[in-house]
Amino acid sequence: MSLPNFNGTVAVIGAGTMGIGIAQVAAHAGHQVKLFDIAATAAQNALSALGMRLRRRVAAGKADADATEALLARIQPVDTLNQLADSALVIEAVAEKLAIKQSLFRELETLCSPAALFASNTSSLSITAIGGALQHPQRLAGLHFFNPAPLMKLVEIVSGLDTSADTVATLQTLARQWGKRSVLCRSTPGFIVNRVARPFYAETLRALEERVADVATLDAVMRDAGGFAMGPLQLTDLIGQDINYAVTESVFQAFFQDSRFTPSLVQQELVAAGRLGRKSGCGFYRYNGESASPTAVCLPLSQVEPPRSIQLHGDPAGVAFLAGLLTENAEAIIQPGQTSAFARIDEVTFMLTNGKTASQVAKETGTPVVLFDLSANYSQAPCVAISCATQNDARHNDKVVHLLQSLGKQVILLPDYPGLLVMRTLAMLTNEALDVVNKGVASAEDTDSALRCGVNYPRGPLEWGAALGWRQILATLENLHRYYGEPRYRPMPLLRHYASLSSGAE
What we know:
Mean pLDDT: 91
Structural class: alpha/beta
Helix content: 40-55%
């Protein structure tokens, strides 16, 4: 399989998890691959380990033997950089140290053809800064794969200030031929995914610091109620606490210590203790050769009488979410000529959180209030997270719990926490994604694709935010901003603009 301006040979430098994964991807696409690592036996050891994994798949009937052996034969471990001189593309996957990468590419520039392209798999360093060490930085771009590289579809193609359009176009062709979904972005801290995804971890880590719930319950809210593939704390254990913390710290420093990227002291403590997650056997969870099975704390079945009436009221912004939650309830009453932003369950106001506490809403409305958290799909979610105003009697809360349980939902009761968990997380993800678009880092389409394909979000944050309504996102952030008094929750200009354009019937 030949590519324009390529002789078919791809070099990969660094034989760690990412390096051997990238080598496997290139070899699977038919390229001859040269694998180099500064450690004498690392490349051969990595290839041997890959061979064992792939041959186990053959033995299990999951892969073809001849194709597997052909793939492995296309990967050649080499001992020196000089042996990479005939490569058309060199992909670097070495330690995240700017000086190391600059030195490596300077040497490669003296060895390789002027037509050869260079790519860095860096997840956090500036492509412009790496290219600053080259006489011809136009040939260098970021080619950021996600772990595991053979399975994850996303590749971020990152342009430095001097990266040429031809380099980007050739890498786009390469990614497509390798079966990858590429997204384009400018070289800014964290690129797309590692920047926009910071709040996914940060808001749950903050909730843990503020003792909102235990680790398993917080993960369950995000996973089982919210619709994300994994809870943030589970995911950081999988990634490695040290790696996740280092990325957050890098982005935080690169953005001049902007508070919206502030690292977590809880995570810092885990790293200091060597509790790095699955790879160390202990992180937020303990592992005994298998992944942890977190169990959330859900409410027992309510024994109270069902509510007498359920009515939907008010502004249209909340219709889809309440309708989705109450779709199986045949007794729901839609008032003629009205759409809904809240439900009235007997005397209890039941509504989607908007960044205020339930107690604040109860004071404003003069009614008992129960808030529920956001979900990507209410009908499919096995559970719903709620919070109750401190002014409520137990019977008020029990009516709502009974209704939700009658719809087949488990109920997770959280303290009266502003914005609950999924809503405040989505608001922050959407806010950050809008800033990426506003500043020309990436397109809206590529930003959403990056989060769906790179970290398996149920919906892109911009698609989700638009469906929820820009005014709802803005109100949530403004209420959180007032509650905490921190610039961390300040709404971005493009969010304010979109919200100002939204009609009252959004």
